[in-house]
Amino acid sequence: DTGVSQDPRHKITKRGQNVTFRCDPISEHNRLYWYRQTLGQGPEFLTYFQNEAQLEKSRLLSDRFSAERPKGSFSTLEIQRTEQGDSAMYLCASRTAGTSVRTDTQYFGPGTRLTVL
Amino acid sequence: SQKIEQNSEALNIQEGKTATLTCNYTNYSPAYLQWYRQDPGRGPVFLLLIRENEKEKRKERLKVTFDTTLKQSLFHITASQPADSATYLCALVTGTASKLTFGTGTRLQVTL
Predict the structure, then answer these.
(1) Which residues of A touch B (CB under 8 A)?
(2) In the prediction, which pLDDT does A1 show?
(3) Across the interface, which of A56, A105, A109 has its CB nearest the CB of B46?
């Protein structure tokens, strides 16, 4: 178990550019979540996948945001035409489906810190 | 409206004392509640989970209580140490997606 990994850890971009982040979940986990966290706030849910299917999206996820999880393994989150308000930490988490403490726990990656200038 | 409230002010306590953090929520019916620890610049790390039919859970120096009538969870760290200094987040689990809805977190500072 190598944990959830995210790449890059930091991204600085100029307003209007597109950015893409990657998340590699724990290998046996079939559920994958994306959250966004701004300074002084708790993480906010953006979207989640069960295997390759994107099953829920928050209204925070504007049409400039798109997420994919091809083949139910890694996931990417793309932000098009970035705005300064997109500056935040983007967190990925994964878990297995089920109802035990082990399966109910979401394991978070280290996050990608995005700064939009 | 739905709300999850944690003490926004930092909690400063002396080493060896018990830290008690509060999480209050309104207009939610969570299946369960979780507590996470977050260090600066890092992702949250899971600590404890408590279900709606459980009153109390313990793990080493950690204890969490869950009162669904009061809509409140308390998180205790006994014999606190400077290494316990971090932000502690409570999160409710709701919906078929089992997504986490977080409070704003409480920063704990343990001093010598």
Answers:
(1) 4, 31, 33, 35, 40-45, 48, 55-56, 91, 93, 95, 101, 104-111, 113
(2) 52
(3) A105
Taking contacts as CB-CB distances below 8 angstroms, the residues of chain B near A93 are: 43, 100
Q: How far apart are CA B67 and CA B14, in angstroms?
A: 28
Within an 8 Å CB–CB cutoff, is residue B98 touching chain A?
yes
- The amino acid at residue B79 is A
**Over the stretch A31-82, which tens digit does the pLDDT of each residue have?**
999 999 999 999 999 999 999 999 999 988 899 999 999 988 999 999 999 9
Phi-psi map region of B99: left, alpha, beta (phi>0 left; psi -120 to 50 alpha): beta
Q: Between the CA atoms of A51, A54, A58 and A59, what dihedral angle is there, to the nearest 10 degrees?
A: 170
Please give the single-letter amino acid code of residue B75: F
